[in-house]
Write a structure and sequence with these properties.
two-stranded antiparallel ribbon, cell projection, 8 helices, mainly alpha, f41 fragment of flagellin, N-terminal domain
Length: 293
């Protein structure tokens, strides 16, 4: 049994096909204008989910990169501070050796003691080094100056580490304990006070050289440990750059449209649309007026 194909049925089929072509053209045009394969999740739920996953990963990587950058700046400032501490202690040692000379008169001794006092004040400024309004040698108590300028001593006792996360399961300690640097074995400030007191009191400060050397070795040890962490942070930054590049590539493959293919599809769809219009014009039933012309 066969069905009779009416003119109305042919017209409806033609309109339906034209609408399908319109939708295909519209979709391709959106892809070309936006550069993306989909305009909304319902266009392709699988692609949408994968794209959101990759974008979320990129957001995490971006945060880790900011952490690494901030941590590197903190550690660089810390290294510069430890370098200053080293220079101060080396100068104090030179002055101690100079003051140990018995040919110095009291005026010369007083001049040496005065310079040491100035070096101690400078060391206090280094102990109160800041970055972004945070004291780098204060442990986690970053808002309180670790060096008390009225007492002229390092009063901070916070030895908590500050760790910056640079990966899902990777973190790096960015700070150096000021207590370990400035209050080691009695502390550098008290040691300088002792040497200054000996010089002013006419006592040979030569016996304090070993204590100065121990303080210098302690600072150098912490500086070398910091250097190792700086290297690790640099490696983490490099790894994050590589991870960001690969994730961007995956996101691009998943979400970005292939322009060459989209242009080819758009041209083909335009040809199909024109053909549909041409065929449609031929199948529309002529009217009586067409025969009277």
């Amino acid at each position: 049994m066969s069905f009779r194909i009416t003119q109305n049925m042919m017209n409806q089929t033609m309109l339906s096909n034209l609408q399908s072509n319109y939708r295909a053209l519209d979709q391709t045009q959106k892809q070309l204008s936006s550069g993306k394969k989909i305009d909304k999740p319902s266009d392709n739920p699988v692609t949408a989910v994968r794209s959101m996953y990759y974008q979320s990963s990129l957001n995490e990587i971006d945060q880790y990169k900011r952490n690494a950058s901030d941590g590197s700046s903190w550690m660089q400032t810390t290294d510069e501070g430890l370098d200053q501490v080293t220079q101060v202690l080396q100068r104090v040692r030179e002055l101690t050796v100079q003051a140990s000379n018995d040919t110095n008169d009291q005026n010369a001794r007083n001049a040496i003691a005065a310079e040491m006092s100035q070096l101690k004040d400078h060391l206090g400024e280094v102990a109160n080094s800041e970055i972004g309004g945070k004291f780098i040698f204060a442990g986690t108590d970053t808002k309180t100056p670790p060096y008390d300028t009225s007492q002229k001593q390092f009063t901070n006792t916070n030895q908590q580490p500050i760790n910056y996360q640079v990966g899902k399961s990777s973190s790096v300690q960015i700070n150096v304990s000021g207590v370990d640097v400035f209050n080691h074995n009695g502390g550098v400030f008290k040691l300088i006070d002792t040497i200054v007191g000996d010089i002013q009191g006419g006592i040979n400060p030569n016996s304090q050289l070993n204590n100065l050397d121990e303080q210098l070795d302690n600072v150098l040890t912490h500086r070398s440990e910091l250097g190792a962490r700086v290297n690790r942070m640099d490696l983490s930054s490099s790894r994050l750059d590589d991870l960001e590049l690969s994730t961007n590539n995956l996101l691009s493959e998943e979400a970005d449209v292939d322009i060459a293919k989209a242009m080819t599809d758009f041209s083909a769809q335009q040809n199909v649309y024109r053909s549909a219009l041409s065929v449609g014009a031929k199948i529309i039933q002529p009217s009586l007026l067409d025969f009277l012309r």
